[in-house]
């Protein structure tokens, strides 16, 4: 037997946390009865419905997408803007993005229908590194980059230690390309960190997630993660606790 929200997450309904909200809202039935309790466990033979639609257990799916600019990291958008799942054609599993990249941010985004895996990848306690490349308005000094590495205050909280380096600079138009590696994932975190030391971000790209890179993918392209990659990511998260 498994917890209801875990079964729902594995079926690709949403992340486990969102599935808990759906249960509390009274939108889930088990064998015809509305369930509002988070601790309930279900059998494989139980009939589960969400919004009157039966769910079924899907095989777990893990994808790596090169997110283009001007896509929402979601499965739907109430403003009608394009979402990242629009780019994933030819699969039947109901996948969703792990975390998010901003509308105008490009780069590596993972998607899955495995709620446990998604939670492992998103939770900062697992310290999964994400590396970003930013085009900045201005040229940060080594001292200012060290401030990022030690942690800066954004939204009233201090960021964890990071890695930062200057890749290139253009003295004529006073811009720079910098790299920043963090393991958190706060809202607009990378942009806010650079702004905290006085440098607006003109462009932002997530270059890598743990050991994964974009390799030969072009914007809008995706591939399945290998079983080895999934196992390695899970082990990294487990070993960090």
UniProtKB/TrEMBL annotation:
Coiled coil: none annotated. It is an enzyme of class 5 (isomerase). Residues 2-59 form the RNA-binding S4 domain. GO terms for cellular component: cytosol. Keywords: Isomerase, RNA-binding. GO terms for molecular function: RNA binding; rRNA pseudouridine synthase activity. This is Pseudouridine synthase. SUPFAM superfamilies: Alpha-L RNA-binding motif, Pseudouridine synthase. InterPro entries: PsdUridine_s_RsuA/RluB/E/F_cat (IPR042092), PsdUridine_synth_cat_dom_sf (IPR020103), PsdUridine_synth_RsuA/RluA (IPR006145), PsdUridine_synth_RsuA/RluB/E/F (IPR000748), PsdUridine_synth_RsuA/RluB_CS (IPR018496), RsuA_PseudoU_synthase (IPR050343), S4_RNA-bd (IPR002942), S4_RNA-bd_sf (IPR036986). CDD domains: PseudoU_synth_RsuA_like, S4. One of its GO terms (biological process) is enzyme-directed rRNA pseudouridine synthesis. It comes from Facklamia miroungae. Belongs to the pseudouridine synthase RsuA family. Its EC number is 5.4.99.-.
